[in-house]
User: Which sequence fits this backbone?
């Protein structure tokens, strides 16, 4: 079964990966011979998010996408805060501009961003979040 996953490393960084056998891959992250060098140097690692996909190439595509995300977007994924992702995808200057237009707390700003995002074409929902 194809999976995309996110590990939190001992140095507080995140590692995104994909696999067809999540349990085996998590074991490999803990071994000296099989785990990637990145996590080998940052043990222990902890699984903080995983999502099941229909096809391995979809899981791999999602892994590559998450690798390009900011820490804030990755942490929104971990919290399953899908509504925050459109806001966090914006440039910092665009985020500030939207926040300035909001006269209330962060939740009010998220509501505004959600309304704006609803007007734009939406990508397919991601499974397993």
Assistant:
């Amino acid at each position: 079964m194809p999976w995309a996953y996110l590990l939190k490393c001992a140095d507080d960084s995140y590692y995104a990966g994909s696999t067809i056998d999540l349990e085996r891959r998590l074991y490999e992250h803990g071994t000296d011979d099989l785990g990637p060098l990145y996590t080998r140097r940052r043990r222990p690692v902890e699984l903080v998010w995983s999502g099941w996909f229909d096809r391995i190439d979809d899981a791999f595509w999602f892994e590559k996408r998450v690798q390009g995300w900011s820490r804030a977007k990755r942490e929104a994924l971990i919290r399953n805060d899908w509504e925050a992702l459109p806001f966090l995808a914006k440039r910092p200057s665009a985020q500030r501009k939207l926040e300035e237009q909001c006269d209330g707390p962060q939740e009010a700003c998220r509501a505004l961003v959600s309304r704006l995002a609803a007007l734009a074409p939406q990508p397919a929902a991601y499974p397993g979040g």
User: Anything to note?
Assistant: The chain has a mean pLDDT of 83. The first strand starts at residue 3 and ends at 8. The radius of gyration is 17 Å. Residues 77 and 129 are 7 Å apart (CA to CA).
